[in-house]
Design a protein that fits this description.
single chain, 421 residues, alpha/beta, Rossmann fold, five-stranded mixed barrel, 12 helices, 32% helix, 23% strand
Length: 421
């Protein structure tokens, strides 16, 4: 049986695409494995949102070629764009941009003539489903609209059927993802899509990948009365300074952003709000950075993805005056990351002594398990039982960090499950 490794860089949309691709490879008789050592086919879904992402993709592809010279290596997606020749020079056998990556399986063909069409499983707890692709906003710093194209949505029926299929395969949680899912326009829009999923499927947890502040409405938030909707929203900020937001071409002010966050917190109990924050955008001096820093501190985010501005040729920001030097960007990023850690710790501490439900993912030989709460806190516990892909209640009792990276979260003691008499 031919083997394939599928890896993805970048956003949750890329992850969703690779999940779909994995299912297709399995149906065609391939064995999906994790290690590229000795694999027959290696596929990397690339990202180009920053120059660092581009560099990671090139480094990974070179490494795979050096360590597995006989593999058929495929580069897909945003990083490939229209210039396949550049990737072929890296030792890639096949390079397909977003416009033609659907041809991959047709080009590779089936691994076995009599491959099973039904009996397969990815053995995971959480599945990403693409509901939308593309962006028509054209923010000054972003290359995504050029590589993903304009906004387009997957049909409601297809999404609902996809969720139902994941339930049948044993998944407990589905994440709806896309480039900009708040612009979902099939049929009645995002509100009606979520309502159909909650009404027509038995999914135990439904999570949204990201929403823009201007896409958040009281009607949409009413859906969170159904506790299967995870009480975690990722709302990208990018900057806490209005001058920089205007230069970026964002469609909201800090006042409008704060109003959206306040509305979410009023309507969704125990909600975790995470965000993206960019430092070093052209024109961001000490005053603008200080304003952004203090706004983020005031917002008390549960999580912050902090990253320095990366110049992307072909974007408006690449031609702007006031480019910030790398030393200042690094300094500001470190300050913002320190704030992010402080805010995240404070958020978690607020739940000590509380009971919460955890979707358990992985365990060690010593019986230490970890998983995620509905509001996206990482929790560890001890159990000799197999907790994989189960949702169990714990009492959160202490702070905890694990692994070489000292990933931070909370320790929970498992509680006895209530049973119906």
């Amino acid at each position: 049986m031919s083997t394939v490794v599928l890896e993805s860089l970048g956003c949750k949309l890329n992850q969703a695409e690779m999940e779909d691709l994995s299912r297709q490879f399995l149906k065609m008789g391939y064995e999906v494995v994790e290690s590229p050592q000795g694999v027959d086919v290696y596929v990397l879904n690339t990202c180009t949102v920053t120059h660092i992402a581009d560099r990671k993709a090139r480094h990974r592809l070179r490494w795979v070629r050096r360590n597995n010279p006989d593999a058929l290596i495929v580069a897909l997606g945003c990083g490939v764009g229209e210039d396949s020749e550049e990737w072929l020079r890296l030792g890639v056998n096949l390079a397909l941009g977003n416009g033609n990556k659907e041809q991959l399986l047709e080009l590779l063909g089936s691994a076995e003539e009599n491959a099973s069409q039904e009996n397969y499983s990815l053995h995971r707890t959480r599945s990403f489903i693409k509901i939308q692709e593309g962006c028509s906003s054209y923010c000054a710093f972003c290359i995504v609209p050029q590589v993903r194209g304009r906004e387009r949505s997957v049909s409601e029926d297809e999404v609902v059927a996809g969720v139902a299929a994941r339930v049948a395969q044993g998944y407990k949680e589905v994440v709806l993802t896309g480039t900009k899912i708040g612009t979902y326009q099939a049929s009645g829009g995002l509100y009606y899509l979520i309502k159909r999923i909650l009404t027509e499927t038995a999914i135990e947890r439904l999570r949204l990948s990201s929403l823009q502040p201007q896409e958040i409405t009281p009607q949409l938030l009413e859906l969170w009365r159904d506790q299967r909707l995870c009480n975690h929203l990722h709302i990208p900020l990018q900057s806490g300074d209005d001058t920089i937001l205007r230069r970026m071409g964002r469609q909201y002010s800090t006042t409008e952003f704060e109003q959206a966050v306040q509305l979410v917190r009023e309507m969704i109990p125990d909600v975790a709000i995470s965000t993206d924050v960019m430092v070093g955008f052209p024109g961001e001096g000490e005053r603008e950075f200080a304003q952004s820093y203090h706004f983020c501190k005031h917002m008390d985010f549960a999580g912050m993805h902090v990253f320095p501005y990366s110049l992307r040729p072909g974007t408006r920001a690449a031609e702007m005056r006031g480019q910030v030097n790398s030393r200042v960007k690094k300094q500001h990023a470190e300050q913002m990351l320190s704030l992010a850690k402080e805010n995240a710790t404070q958020f978690r501490r607020g739940f000590l002594g509380c009971n919460t439900r955890v979707l358990w993912e992985q365990g060690t030989e010593e019986g230490i398990w970890n998983g995620l709460t509905s509001n996206y806190m990482r929790v560890w516990t001890s159990s000799r039982d197999d907790l994989s892909n189960t949702i169990r209640t714990v009492r959160l009792v202490s702070e905890y960090s694990a692994g070489i990276t000292k990933k931070e979260g909370l320790w929970g003691n498992l509680l006895e499950e209530e049973t119906d008499e």
